Amino acid sequence: MTTLEAIRYKDGRLSVLDQLQLPLKTDYIAVKTVDDAWNAIRDMKVRGAPAIAIVGCLSVAVELNAKVFQSKKTLEEHLNDRFNYLVTSRPTAVNIQQARTEFAKLASSLSADDAIDVDQMKFRILNQLEGTLAVDVAINRLIGEHGAKDIIENCRSTSEIRILTHCNTGSLATAGYGTALGVIRSLHSMKMLKHVFCTETRPYNQGARLTAYELVHEAIPATLVCDDMVAWLMKTETITAVIVGADRVVSNGEIGRASCRERV
């Protein structure tokens, strides 16, 4: 079965899965402008730091595709203005802030290069904006592979791997595949996964509405539990590992803003 797509982009057209309708309805909404993207992010129709950044970048691409710029300066100003606006839709989402910084540097560099005209500058920026989708999927798959390998190497029994996860860190929070849920996908594809337990994740119920939806969609053996059952679950079930997401994980293992994880 194919992985869920939270973001669809082709030939300059962007649509996103309205996550407020899940799990009862699968409905894609068109994003024709940066303002559309801002509203979708603010209203939680799009969620997850990676997905927020990608939708933001692709909405800028949609606008650039439809515009003609008379100078490199006006293109640079437009790009910076739109990214500054997008950041206000979810100020706590780190990835969109990182994208703003990255594209501001790119635009500044291209604008200062006399060997590049405005059309070439636009092409280079568009190419990088549109590439964010594939880059995120590739990163997710690497996270999944490395995470699965680490669990297999360190668990006592590779025939009874049971995972507990919290919130939603899958295809619906990224460009596809997922981060923490990507590890679970990798274990499942390797036929090493016995069972997954996902929590409801109060108060927004990302686990109940989204993670459970993804697990059912891909026929991964799973059980949805309420947040208050975690301690009992850890006591009565042989949980191999707990996998959750974080905005940032640094090389020494420290995490930044592992939100919604207090009960786990």
Please give the structural blueprint:
Elements: E1 7-10, E2 13-17, E3 28-31, H1 34-42, H2 49-66, H3 72-87, H4 94-112, H5 118-154, E4 161-165, H6 180-189, E5 193-199, H7 206-217, E6 222-225, H8 230-236, E7 241-243, E8 248-249, E9 255-256
Helix pairs in contact: 1-2, 2-4, 2-5, 3-4, 4-5, 5-6
Supply database-style keywords:
264 residues, alpha/beta, four-stranded parallel sheet, three-stranded antiparallel sheet, 8 helices, 14% strand
3D architecture notes:
- The protein has 264 residues and is an alpha/beta fold.
- Helix content is 48%, strand content 14%.
- The protein has helices spanning 34-42, 49-66, 72-87, 94-112, 118-154, 180-189, 206-217, 230-236, and strands at residues 7-10, 13-17, 28-31, 161-165, 193-199, 222-225, 241-243, 248-249, 255-256.
- The strands form 3 sheets. It has a 4-stranded parallel beta sheet, covered by helices on one side. The chain has a 3-stranded antiparallel beta sheet with strand order 1-2-3, covered by helices on one side. It has a two-stranded antiparallel sheet with strand order 8-9.
- Helix 2 (49-66) runs antiparallel to helix 5, helix 3 (72-87) packs antiparallel against helix 4 (94-112) and helix 4 (94-112) runs antiparallel to helix 5.
- The chain is elongated, with a radius of gyration of 20 Å.
- The relative contact order is 0.13.
- The mean pLDDT is 93.
